[in-house]
Structures are given as C-alpha cells and as structure tokens.
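Appendix B, record 7
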Amino acid sequence: MEESTLLQNGYFPKELPPSFNTKELANNYSVLRSKWTKVFNLLNKEEKQKYKETNSIKYSIPKNGYIRRVLNIPNPFSQIQLTEVITLNWSDIQNKLNDSTISFSKPYYNPFSNRAFITKKNFGDFTKERLISSADMLFEVKTDISRFYNSIYTHSIPWALHGKMEAKQNRTDKNLLGNKLDKILREGNYGQTIGIPIGPDTSLIISELIHSEIDKTIQSTFPKIKFLRYIDDLYAYCDKLSDAEIFIKKYQILLTEHQLELNEEKTIITEKIFEFENKWTSQLSTFKIREFSGQGTDIERFASITFDLYKKYPNDSILFYATQILSKKIIQNEYWDIFQAILFKILLVEPKAMEPIAKIFVKNEGRVDKNTFKGILGKIIDTNIGNNHNYEVTWALWLMKEFSFKLTKSRADMIVKSGDSVSILILLDLNSKGLINRAFNVNSIKEIIKLEDLNGEKWLLIYESILKGWIDPEIDPILDNKFFKLMREMNISFYDDTFTSRPEETVEPIFEPSPHYAGPFGYRPMM
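Structure tokens (predicted):
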C-alpha cells in the first residue's frame, strides 16, 4: 500500500458529492512532501508550533429515523502524517490485526475497489457465519459499543499495540508506533484525546487495532464461547444463560479499561431462535419486476409493498434498499412517469437515498420532469438547511448544478448563514456559473473566512474558494500558512468544478450502482 493510494481513495468520506476528491493531492504527494520537508526544516521553533494542531470539517449524514452521524474531513496536513505512519508501518499493523480471529471487518486492500480499504468480509458474509456458528448453540448475546468512534481514547492506541505496561513505560518514546499514532490523531483533533475522525479509511484501521486487543482478551477468557464481530457489533454464542450473563459483565469491565462503554440499550440475550435478516429484506429482494409487458403494474405493486413496509418499520433502511433495487432496472419510456413519481416521493422522505437517486436522474436527464425535480430540491434545502443536515443540502445543491437549475438568492443567503463549508463551496461554484437567480454578494463569505484560519474547521472553504478565485480576501490567509501556500503553488485542488457525472454517450439510460456503495464509513449500508 502506497501513501498516494490511501490519500486518493481513503481520505475524503465517500458520502460527499463526487466533485470533492483528493486525486491531485495523491498525484502530487511525493513532490509536496519533499518541498514541505525543506520548508519546515528552515522554520524556527515558534514557527513550527503553528503547524501542530488542526481541526476537521464536520459533515452530518442521515443514519436511521431521526438519528444522525457526524463524519469528519481532516485537515490535509494531519491526514498526510497519519497516512505516512500507517503505510510505513503496515507490516507491524497487519501482524497486530491478525491477533483477532473473530473480526469480519479487518481492513483489506482491494485494488478493484474505489476505496483504499474495504472490510475483509462484507456484512452478508458476517450474517451467514452467524447462522452457521449459532447452529448448535442455545443463547445469543448481541451487543455493541456506545458511540464507538467518538469515544476512542487515543492513549489506548499504544496500549493496544504494545500492551499497557510497555506503553506506560515508554510513553515519552517518540519512535514507538502507538505513540506516533496517538500524537497525530490528537493533534488532528485540536489536542483532544477523545474521538477519532469518522469517514477516512484510516479510522477503520485504528478502530480494528483497538478491537484486536479486546478480541484477543475475550477469546482467551471465554474459550467455550463463539464470537463474531463486525466493526463494533459483537455476537457471542453459548449454551448457558449464566455464561452469557458473565460474559456481558466482564466485557463491560474490559471496555471500561479501554475508556469505552457498552451500549446497554442494544445488549440483548436471545434464546434458541435468533434473527439473522431484517423482516422485510427477502420480501423486497425476491420481488420480480418484468422488463417489458406488465412492468408498470410491477413497479406500482413494488412501491405499494415498499411504502407499507416503511410504515411498519420507519427506522429501517427500507426506502434506501428499495431504491437500490429499482436502480438496477431498465425502465421503459411508457412507465417512466410512475417510476419517477416513486423516486420523487422517496427523495422527500428518505435522505439516504439521495445519492443513488441522483445517479438515476443524471443518467436519465432527458426523461426527468425538471420543474417538479427543481421544486423538490428546493424543498429539501428549505427543510434541512436550518438543521445542519449537511448531506441533504450538499447533494441538493450538487444536483442543481448538474441540471443547471438556478438557486434563489434567499436560499443562497440561508446557505451562507449555515456556515457549512461544503455547501458554501458548491454555492460559490453555482455563483461562478451564473446559477443564482439574482446578484449574489460574496462579502458575507469573506467575513466567515476572515474569522477562521487554515488549521480550523473552515480549511477547505478558505483554501478552495481562494484557489479558484471565487473569493478575493483583503488579507490572503494562505500566505500565512506555508503548507497550504505550497499546495496552491502546485495547484492542488480538492474540488473539481468541471466534474459532471453525465455519461459521454447514452445509448440506453441505465443506472449502474457503484460496487462499493456502502455506509457511513464505506463499509456497509447506512443503518
């Protein structure tokens, strides 16, 4: 694994619109690294302190029902350091990861994936193995860790890698791998020792390192219990209720030693018959939609079943799952209106379905009812902008750009008021293309930039808006940060304003879903 691969495919969260990417950073990494080393070595001690702590951008995505998850877009200065340490020590990290024989989520490099790392096994494999492993067992314990990524104590990383005793004895050893990772993660979170960023593939690696030590302990402590784990979802199978209860108590103590907390609400003991699949999955997955005659009737019936199931299980990912099924179908022109109407309704109700629906509509642009679609996107912005629902707003804005819809000035003002870097950057792109319906003044964005710096949460907005020439600040903050100044000199961009997802040739409007489309971390569906 090379640093450039991990930077290109494992840095930005996959839930961002596709205009956001790290390709240029990855392509220029070696030269940037060499130039920065020379610049940094010439700085005095006081100047070097300016390049110590950074903060990440927060990006809220939908999870289940009213629950949200906040992803992070780390500062490139910190992410490059983390990437380097992980790639240079990958052999040692792999050896530690192999301590666990129960993990189905070990990071695995797949050159054919659009992520740097995916899980060794997928969630379907995990479900099948649970069925097999539980066949001769009477009790199942299902549990997970409360707010896992947000609760990780960075000092526990050297504990997991080297053992608590050795880590404490060598806490000042700057060459110890665990200490390096601890330091970089803390400094990338403004010095905080609690929490690691959610989104980059590097966090899967860090979380699995911590889990590998915990897995090793429970395996040796409970040799008669069968364990299976995927990310922070842990299942245990045994024959005695007392064994299940003892395990829960000891597991809770073990997590506490790592500054983690058992999710008591999701800790359940089940006897004899265990649930392995959502009640609705097979009902939708086995439904047949004909290609030609009768397709319209099938689509209507499928929608009816889907909406009924959604009413019964409103907190499940039913509409998202149904959208993925529909996205694989070739829809005949005579049935497009009903198909489109169903997707419009899902778009308003299920924000997680925005990305797959976006791909369907972009590839079928000529058949989309533009007026209705534009109105729905406006409603999505109005509904979500005041609630910091970044995912919904950014995807709505990106779709407005793709379809050349004009944004109202009042909505543009609301987006600026939200302070969301990702949304404001797309807004500036719309403005540069004349896609705001009245003259838009960027002075309010200049004020936001004036109050922030390139080490803070607005790093992407500050850097990219100035790089693109969309903002011309009175005082250029990039001149005060030699690292970002180097990136600008090399014309490294994180936002491609020329990107379009339209196919070059459209013979038949078919949507091909991304083989890697998964969830908040890029490893499984958003559930």
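Remarks on this record: The chain has three domains: 1-75+370-502, 76-271, 279-368. The two ends are 30 Å apart (CA to CA).
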